[in-house]
Amino acid sequence: QSTWATASDFTEGLISAAQRVGAECRQLVDVSGEVIKGQHKDPSLALKAACKGVSTGAVHLVTAGQISAGDSKPQQELQRAAGDVKSATKALLGVAEDRKKAQAAAAGEADDEEVDIGEGVGANRADFESQLRILEAQRALEEARRNREKLNRAKYKKEQAAGRS
User: Which of 62, 76, 100, 160 lies 20 to 30 Å from 43 when distance is taken between CA atoms?
Assistant: First the structure.
């Protein structure tokens, strides 16, 4: 390949990675607004997913920069900025988790509360229902992962098609 084609690919990779960071930040802002409005069943989980997207986008941007920039001063600055993004998202998650714990405490819930499961058949039934809820959640998680993979594949194909144009 020519140097021009390689430089063009590198530039497109950086632009794509930067756009992803921007999109993930917009998503975090949107989710934060939705959490404030009470539109999420589990606000800390919604924020965690959004923060994870921002952090992942920042990692992709740093990786894209390393391909051509190596260990240059701008690359080091980019890595520091990505570290700041990671710290900020971690702090946001900490605040969300603290809020969740405070709400649970205010509602009278306790993490170490003992559960009375009864004896004999009642205990077995409680264990069965608990296991059933776990399996249902695992199935929903796997389905969500498959859907996310489909979305990512479709997005990748779209980006590849746009890059060929």
Answer: 62
